[in-house]
Amino acid sequence: MTVPILKNFVADKWVEGDGGLRDMVSAVNGKPVAQTSSQGIDFKAMLDHARTVGGPALRKLTFHDRAYILKDLAKAIMARKEELYDLNFATGATRKDGWIDIEGGAGTLFAMSSQGRRHLPDDQVLVDGPSDQISREGTFMGQHIYTPMQGAAVHINAFNFPVWGMLEKLAPTFLAGMPSIVKPATATAYLAEAAFRIMIESGRLPEGSVQLIVGSTGDLFDHLTGQDIVSFTGSAYTASKLKNHPRIISESARFVAEQDSLNASVLGPDASPDSPEFDLFVKEVVREMTVKAGQKCTAIRRAFVPENLLGAIEDAIKARLAKITVGDPANDDVRMGALVSASQREDVREKISILASEAKIVFGDPNEVNVMGDGTEHGAFISPVLLRCDNPGSAVKVHEVEAFGPVSTLMPYKDADDAVRLCNKGEGSLVMSLFTHDPTVARQFALGAAAYHGRIAIINRDSAKESTGHGSPLPVLVHGGPGRAGGGEELGGVRGVKHYMQRTAIQGSPAIIAGVTNQWMKGADVKAGAPHPFRLKFGELEIGKTIKTAERTISLEDIEHFAEFTGDTFYAHMDDAAAKANPFFPGRVAHGYLLLSFAAGLFVDPAPAPVLANYGLDELRFLTPVPAGDTIKVRLTAKSKKKRNDEYGEVRWDVLVTNQDDEAVASYDLLTMNAI
Asked: Please, what's the b/e burial string for 76-88 (b: 16 or more CB within 10 A of its CB; e: otherwise)?
């Protein structure tokens, strides 16, 4: 049988290695699925192509341009997902496992596209926080900005999620405007290569923006610079080896690590055998042991329960594990497939034997398993294995050694403080989960354990139906953890994008900073005069376009009418003596929302116009009380713009309300939707 030879994607061309082919075999039957080699590839040229072709092409695009490309890539993968499912079985994964990997990967692209269009500007510069006035008169200001790193991002992925693992790194990198060189784990590279090829064939990727290595990375690391970033997922041993590469150290190249960790799950001290949390905990432990045959960096390795419930929990977990069928994942009756390879199975067996020196096996046999399906005798199958350690406080190996397969250790704890200490003995993990219905228990664990965990999933009867569970990293939440988990972060919405950008402090006059950021700031040039800014379409409106309104005097009758009309009869507006007793007020004062209403009346242009709707207010502050007899006026300035679609865009306006003495009375950002 002839098997396909996978090619590398180098400098926008598919290139076959010039020898040294390596077999990739099916986890189900041990037969070759594909061959691969990267021998003869010029890795320096790959990095140069990314820096000189891919980087400039991406940096010409705005965040929104890149976000729309991610959306189209996700659509392309979903349109051809069945091709990927066909390959998925050879990795040992069931279709349900593949759904997490394949459609979960596409979902990450969709989510990051949405994050980019919602939270990032339709621009090439990302402003970080408010500006800072450095000089006395405000002519010299400071502002932090983010811009893309001008090197290449090298993505080194693990074998367990060949599609999702690739896309969860690619999405924020691409959105940031940085080119990527993708290196999937060789064992399952055939599935990653297929998904990568679909994206290339979509025709939506700029030249040089992505490249693929399906074999060894050769001397790639020898050519890294301080503008390059390495993002790694895998074992702590490999991570340590890579991040201590002389080039990483000498160039201070960024290294983002997401390592396997000894994640914990805790059944809270408030649980009882008849509480919903008891059953939810049991189901989650079993699910995390068996999904992807336990080959998840977020899987539950340590399960802690109140000591009085240890026996009951053990029996419940064993009863559910007994129903798990192991075998060919293409068989609909199979609930757990194979490990990725025979060598991985041997590693898991070795780690189980180490754990068994401190714990006893209470379910399963690492050397025996009943397998469903024909032709599976050479597959990498193993039984789910549950261990029990009765003395977790004095044990060492159960908190240090991870069997990367369908393996978990059940352990008792004395009280909540003891459970926190035991969780933290893992010395840092990607995630822990807590099953409790008591908010005080949840707070105790958050305060005691958050420093050791990248994510804490608190699950109970109220959230279980919609919960994504213990082991599901989400695009909008950070994925990573301290200590043993690598000390890095991935995903997290816009947070993940910033890992591939440089934060820089710029200093200059307001006009200069406004020119750099494409956002108006106080003190920058304004563009006054006709026409009224509300008469301009989104594309016609310039940043800095300003209107200064006429004045309006606030009367006592205005205040009393507003109070009667709205029902807001707070004493500061209606009782002069009580108001004067308040150190904030000189006497009766106008309602803050009266001022907003009158301000709108001063600056709106009432006729039908490109302004379609008032979208809301941000950063509202009431700064100076306005008693009856004071006069207000408004300065309205176009601050920034963000295109939403082909029909309308969002305009952010800086609104400043002042009194007759030019004191600031109120300030806020007004958001409108304007026709394109």
From this structure: bbbebbeebbebb
Active site residue 258: yes
Note the pLDDT of residue 606.
87
This model's pTM is above 0.85 = yes
Tokens of 506: 């710029």
* Strand-strand pairing, 631-643 and 326-327: unpaired
Active-site annotation holds for 297: yes
Given a cut of 80, whether residue 647 has pLDDT beyond it is yes
- Can you say how many angstroms the Cα of residue 92 is from the centroid of all Cα atoms in its chain? 27
**Under a CB-based contact definition with an 8 Å cutoff, are residues 355 and 377 in contact?**
no
Question: Mind listing the pLDDT tens digit for each residue in 164-217?
Answer: 999 999 999 999 999 999 999 999 999 999 999 999 999 999 999 999 999 999
Alpha helix positions (H), 486-605: 494-498, 510-517, 556-566, 571-574, 576-581, 592-603
Q: Which helix (H) or strand (E) holds 235?
A: none
Tell me the domains of the chain and their CATH numbers.
Answer: 8-12+22-260 (3.40.605.10), 264-473 (3.40.309.10), 526-675 (3.10.129.10)
Distances (CA, A) of 202 to 73, 88, 387, 606: 7, 21, 48, 47
Catalytic position from the list 288, 297, 389, 489: 297
Share of the chain above pLDDT 70, in %: 100
Place of tokens 């409106």: 541
- Report the alpha-carbon distance of residue 538 to residue 451 in Å, rounded: 46
Question: Which stretch of DSSP H or E encloses residue 407?
Answer: strand 407-413
Q: Considering the chain, what is the average pLDDT of its residues?
A: 94
Number of Cβ atoms within 10 Å of the Cβ of 254:
21
Catalytic pick among 16, 103, 193, 258: 258
